[in-house]
Write a structure and sequence with these properties.
With 207 residues, the chain is of the alpha+beta class. It has one helix and ten strands. This is Vesicle-associated protein 1-2.
């Protein structure tokens, strides 16, 4: 946390869980410790890469203001996951009743005699949170076996293997039953054809 005379800033490092081709946001909180209205302005060394909302504003006396910093989706990862981007947050005491619409660049002009507090913020890339181990899901028909999940979230491999084996045996049994029924039906048809041909041959002999 930065503790200036006007604003306290938390955190001083903008940590982004870096992922390619994905927008990532993090937040800052500004705390006004004074009884005065404080105007702020956020600058960055890479304005095309980041979106800051709000990038200017007023923090009322004894209150806070949240800032959301969004990094645009990146196509390439930086070498060694190091980032040289920096932010500069400027703050200045202003008149009571000032609103965000009243803020202008002149207010932060040191050469004009304004007392401007400045705080530099670093950007740090961190590894994204790892997803939990996937649990085998059923097929689209919902017929595939599912392993049981223990309290620690891991699949019980023995139970899963047993369920998979039982499922396979059931499918094979069903296949065999189907084949058997088809074979019996075919044999019945052949028998009927043979009987008919035999009857026809006997009739021809009698004639």
């Amino acid at each position: 946390m930065s503790t200036g005379e006007l604003l306290s800033i938390e955190p001083l490092e903008l940590k982004f869980p870096f992922e390619l081709k994905k927008q990532i946001s993090c937040s800052l909180q500004l705390s006004n410790k004074t009884d005065n209205y404080v105007a702020f302005k956020v600058k960055t060394t890479n304005p095309k890469k980041y979106c800051v909302r709000p990038n200017t504003g007023i923090v009322l006396p004894r209150s806070t203001c949240d800032i959301i910093v969004t990094m645009q989706a990146q196509k390439e990862a930086p070498p060694d996951m190091q980032c040289k981007d920096k932010f500069l947050l400027q703050s200045v005491k202003t008149n009571d009743g000032t609103t965000a619409k009243d803020i202008n660049a002149e207010m932060f002009n040191k050469e004009a005699g304004h007392v401007v507090e400045e705080c530099k913020l670093r950007v740090i890339y961190v590894s994204p949170p790892q997803p939990p181990s996937p649990v085998p899901e059923g097929s689209e028909e919902g017929s595939s076996p599912r392993g049981s999940v223990s309290d620690n979230g891991h699949v019980n491999s023995a139970e899963f293997a047993a369920a998979a084996r039982a499922f396979t045996e059931r499918i094979e049994h069903q296949d065999k039953s189907t084949e058997a029924r088809a074979l019996i039906s075919k044999l019945k048809d052949e028998k009927n054809n043979a009987v008919q041909q035999n009857n026809k041959l006997r009739q021809d002999l009698l004639d």
